[in-house]
Recover the amino acids of this structure.
C-alpha cells in the first residue's frame, strides 16, 4: 500500500506563532490563560494545560496574562479584559486581523457587511463584532438565496472557507445585490492546504484527514477531499485508525489541518506504515499458500 502525505499538512503560520508565544510565556513562568482553547485541537490544548496554561472565560479570572487566540475576538472583549486589569496578549492571526479591519472599514462606509462563513465559529463572531453597522453571515447557497438588502454591500470571507463555496455564494449575490466591495480573504495557508489535499485525494482511494473535529479548516479539508471522490476518514489521533478501512486499498493519502501538531501527523504516518507492512506480509503469506 502506497502512503502519500500532502504538502503543507499541519501547523500554519498563525498557529505556529500563537503556540510559540504561549511556550515563551510558559518558560517565563508567568500566570497565563487563553480565552477559550488556543486552537481547535484537543491534544494541543491538553498539552498546554499540562504545562499550566488553562483555557478560560473572561468571567473566570481576575489577574495574569490573557492570550487571545488565533481566531480573534470583538474589540469590546479586549476592552473588558483590560478593564479587569488583565495583561492582554493578542495572538490573533494577522490574516484574521486583516479581515476584521476590512469588515470595519466597509461598515464605516455605511455598507452592510456580508461575511461568508460559519455563523457559530469564533472567527466569524469576532469579525462581526468589529462592524459598527449591520453585518450578516452567509454560510451556504440557501442563505445567499434568502438574503436581500437594497443597501450597498461589502463582502469578506472567513479565512478557512473553500474557494468552491465562496464562488457559489458570490454567483448568487452578484445577481441581486449592490456589491460595492468584495475581498476574498481566504488565507494563503488555507489555499495551499486545500490545493495540496485535493491533488493527493484525486490520486488515492482513501484519504485520512487529521485534526480537531471542531476545527473549521480541518473539516473543510475533508470536504475538499470528499468532493473529488476519495473515501475520507476525519481522525484526531492515530488511535482512531482501523485496519479494515484499507482492505483492497492500494493508495492512501494523508493531510492535516492547520491546527494539527507535527507529533500527531508523525504518529499517523507510522501507524499507516505499520498497517501497510502487516498487509503486505499477509498478502505474501497468501501468495505462498497458493503457490
Ligand atoms: Fe491564520 Fe490562516 Fe492559520 S488565518 S491561523 S494562517 S489558517
Amino acid at each position: 500500500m502506497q502512503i502519500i502525505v500532502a504538502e503543507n499538512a499541519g501547523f500554519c503560520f498563525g498557529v505556529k506563532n500563537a503556540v510559540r508565544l504561549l511556550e515563551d510565556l510558559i518558560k517565563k513562568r508567568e500566570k497565563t490563560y487563553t480565552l477559550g482553547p488556543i486552537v481547535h485541537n484537543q491534544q494541543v490544548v491538553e498539552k498546554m494545560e499540562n504545562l499550566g496554561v488553562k483555557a478560560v472565560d473572561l468571567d473566570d479570572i481576575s489577574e495574569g496574562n490573557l492570550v487571545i487566540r488565533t481566531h480573534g475576538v470583538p474589540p469590546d472583549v479586549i476592552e473588558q479584559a483590560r478593564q479587569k486589569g488583565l495583561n492582554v496578549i493578542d495572538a490573533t492571526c494577522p490574516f484574521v486581523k486583516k479581515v476584521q479591519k476590512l469588515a470595519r472599514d466597509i461598515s464605516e462606509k455605511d455598507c452592510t457587511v456580508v461575511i461568508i462563513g460559519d455563523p457559530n465559529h469564533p472567527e466569524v463572531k469576532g469579525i462581526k463584532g468589529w462592524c459598527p453597522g449591520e453585518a450578516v453571515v452567509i454560510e451556504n447557497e440557501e442563505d445567499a438565496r434568502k438574503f436581500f438588502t437594497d443597501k450597498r454591500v461589502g463582502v469578506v470571507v472567513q479565512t478557512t472557507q473553500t474557494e468552491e463555496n465562496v464562488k457559489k455564494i458570490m454567483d448568487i449575490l452578484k445577481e441581486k445585490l449592490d456589491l460595492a466591495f468584495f475581498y476574498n480573504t481566504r488565507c494563503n495557508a488555507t489555499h495551499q492546504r486545500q490545493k495540496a489535499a485535493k491533488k493527493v485525494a484525486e490520486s488515492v482511494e482513501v484519504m485520512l484527514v487529521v485534526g480537531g473535529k471542531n476545527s473549521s479548516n480541518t473539516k473543510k479539508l475533508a470536504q475538499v477531499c470528499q468532493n473529488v471522490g476519495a473515501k475520507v476518514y476525519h481522525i484526531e489521533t492515530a488511535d482512531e485508525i482501523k485496519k479494515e478501512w484499507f482492505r483492497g486499498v492500494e493508495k492512501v493519502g494523508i493531510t492535516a489541518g492547520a491546527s494539527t501538531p507535527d507529533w500527531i501527523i508523525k504518529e499517523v504516518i507510522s501507524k499507516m506504515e505499520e498497517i501497510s507492512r502487516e498487509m503486505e506480509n499477509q498478502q505474501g503469506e497468501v501468495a505462498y499458500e497458493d503457490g
